[in-house]
């Protein structure tokens, strides 16, 4: 009569047999893979292994019936590198989109919440725009006063005997021109920011409706 240990051993062997069969079946399927490649003379070859001298080129993969089921890109070739980079970019883009979707659903409960936050954000930017526009108007007004003073001096005066422009006033004119240019650039950036924020809320709203299946 077999001992308890023997019975347990037999039971483990019986349980392992299906797993062993799967492993052998997978190995057999792998061994049945056939490659097709072309040599330097244009002749087509078939085999279960690609010779080392042709390892740097792409090859077709055939099943046991000789039907093409895919293509293996040789590592290091421009095609393989490009395919890998494209796959990595697509994977990164999908992961980033999934992250944004999670954040969107966690942040908002309804489209109305998105519209409310949009209005608040745009109001803040509009207030900043108003301040910058007023600042620019003040700079231009100061510049106009400086130009009025400079009109009495050469080279801004048409009088041949006009005295030269005082050094201090010349510096003020140069500084005011620079200040106006910087303020105009800042104002343009703020306007572009407003457009970008408004556009982003549009995108978030459409995506939120798509995720929540809201018409």
Describe the structure in your own words.
With 215 residues, this protein is of the alpha+beta class. It has a domain at 110-212. It contains four helices and four strands; from the N terminus they run αββββααα. Strand 3 (59-62) and strand 4 form a beta hairpin. The protein is elongated, with a radius of gyration of 38 Å.
Keywords summarizing the entry:
alpha+beta; single chain; 215 residues
Radius of gyration: 38 Å
Neighbour order of strands in the largest sheet: 2-1-3-4
Fraction of residues in helices?
A: 55-70%
Tally the beta strands: 4
- Helix/strand order, N-terminal first: HEEEEHHH
In the predicted model, the low-confidence regions spanning at least 5 consecutive residues are 20-30
Shape: elongated
Specify the structural class.
alpha+beta
Strand content: 5-15%
Write down the overall mean pLDDT: 84
Report the major sheet: 4 strands, antiparallel
Question: Separation of termini?
Answer: 74 Å
User: Helix segment count?
Assistant: 4
